[in-house]
Amino acid sequence: MYQALYRVWRPQTFVDVVGQEHVTKTLQNALLQQKTSHAYLFSGPRGTGKTSAAKILAKAVNCQKMPVAEPCNECPSCLGITDGSIQDVIEIDAASNNGVEEIRDIRDKVKYAPNSVPYKVYIIDEVHMLSIGAFNALLKTLEEPPKHVIFILATTEPHKIPLTIISRCQRFDFKRITAQDLVNRMVHIASETGLKYEEKALHVIAQAASGGMRDALSLLDQAISFSTDLVTIEDALTVTGSVSQNYLNKLVHAIQGKNISEALTILEELTLKGKDPARFVEDLILYFRDLLLYQTAPNLEESLERAMLDDEFVELVQTIQPEQIYEYMDVLNKTQQDMKFSNHAKIYLEVCLVKLCQTQTQNNINNVDGIQELLVKINSLEKQLEDLKVNRPVTEEQAQPQPTKKPTRTNKGFQANTGKIREILSSATRDDLNIIKSKWGNLLEQLNQRQMRSQAALLMDAEPAAASSTAFVIKFKYEIHCKMAMENAKFLEVTAGLVEELTGKRLQFIGVPEAQWLEIRKDFLQNQGHEQDQGEEEAPDPLIQEAVKLVGEELIEIKN
Fold first, then answer.
1. In angstroms, rounded to a whole number, what is the distance separating the alpha carbons of residues 408 and 519?
2. How far apart are CA 272 and CA 18, in angstroms?
3. What element of type H or E holds 136?
4. Which entry of 29, 79, 117, 515 is 20 to 30 Å from 469 by CA?
């Protein structure tokens, strides 16, 4: 039965694990010195060799030729672990065995000695999928397992693993494999299997794999099935959904020539061929990156990721300005972010191409005519200065240095919006004020819980003073706090949102320093012809304040 390439060419020794020398070298030294740990944590992106390294380590510690840096893959132990006939190396998928009962079963069986090899090895893949209870059940066993047991945990999301688990393991971070390492591995596989290929085709596949060896071999397998006798670059572009450089060259020429019609026509052709808009944007960003790199550092030709050095590419390098590339990449990057959260990716891409064609470079100083014009103006100004010096000699008084006056700093305080406050007072009620006051403590608590302590600090010495059904007034004890709060857009947005959550109504609010509030309130009451509006805060009674100081607020009951 046919097996996929990534299964046939799965690494069987540490040397075969590509791009992870920092991990394999450490493990080999530990094996030679017989200083292996009781627990390991392998973390990193998918397809980078975590599970393969775990199985190689399990074979190495149980190899009959120990101590060795590599498993021999010839003794009964190595062969049995490779084909899965030895039951002492247990692979567990935590995605489907993530309950407490499964971990308790491991904890109960771990005390039994292995049957046919020196060490019993538990390989738990995607360990971050375990529940909190399962992690807790694993803690003590993971910290002090029997001498004949080794745990190897593998995960793609280490941030989801409790720190209590991580601290009990030796952690190794697997990194994304470089495109060149992926190409080298595919070349080795192709030479061993007699596969015919174009070198650029392997580069396209490596770029689409995004640092994962398994993804690269799966795409190569697909390209082999798609092609006939030779894996060409067109086959690789079709399988990966990437765009050929011929189209990229024509598109960038259209953008440079401000030809919107041609740019949109090229996009339509690619869409009809089934190209993915997201992949197209990524290819275009990499193409501009290669343009800029080759333009500024042509000696780094081998670092080009997407472009090939054909005549059209070299011509573009000579005509396009770096400032234009910066602006193009900014527009493309923003479009790429917007496309991730939209169901209309093609529309975003069409708008992006129109923007690129309409982009005007800000830096025109390199224009020769502009330089000449600037030089003429400079010469004219210098001549005028010389004429002024000749025709108007400097007098003694003018020659003496004049004392420079320091600019006076105007430090105007915060002025509350009196008209808005009067409008709120005119329709304020006691019930509306009580609603806001009852939720005030909850508002401060919510701000602290959301790590917005700076916003909460501004409201510590503030309180609602008057309220209507649509707005309310916040009285600040200190003018500087009021100024900081009312001029802070984030404060206004967050506070308004929390007030809406707590009251169920979208209320506007306005801040006022305490001194200004007393004046506005007094003036309003005089104009209204009565002593106090029922929707505003009553002036504190000196007698009640003194009673609170003596016996405490909880022992006082006030009856009107």
1. 29
2. 38
3. helix 132-143
4. 515
Say how far apart CA 33 and CA 333 lie, in whole Å.
Answer: 50
User: pTM of the prediction?
Assistant: 0.57
Euclidean distance between CA atoms 495 and 491, whole angstroms: 6
Q: What angle do CA 482, 484, 490 make, to 5 degrees?
A: 115
Cα torsion for 231, 232, 234, 240, to the nearest 10°? 40
Give the separation between CA 220 and CA 231, rounded to whole angstroms: 9
The C-alpha atoms of residue 160 and residue 169 are separated, in whole angstroms, by: 15
DSSP letters along 401-454, please? PPPPPPPPPP-------HHHHHHHHHT--HHHHHHHHHHHHHHHHHHHHTT-HH
Q: Is 46 left (phi over 0), alpha (psi -120 to 50) or beta?
A: beta
Mean pLDDT check: name the lowest of 216-220, 241-245, 307-311: 307-311
Distance of CA 75 to the CA centre of its chain: 48
Which residues on neighbouring strands pair with residue 231, listed in sequence order?
A: 197
Q: What is the pLDDT of residues 505-538, one digit of tens each?
A: 888 888 888 888 888 888 888 877 544 444 444 5
- Placement of tokens 């609170």 in the chain: 548
Q: What angle do CA 104, 112, 109 make, to 5 degrees?
A: 15
| Joined tokens for residue 18 | 């590509």
pLDDT, one tens digit per residue, over 55-77 is 999 999 999 988 889 999 899 99
From 416, 392, 412, 371, select the one nearest 523 (Cα to Cα): 416
Angstrom distances, CA of residue 401 to CA of 386, 396, 397, 398, 405: 21, 10, 8, 7, 12
Q: How many residues are there in the chain?
A: 560
CA 169 from centre of chain: 27
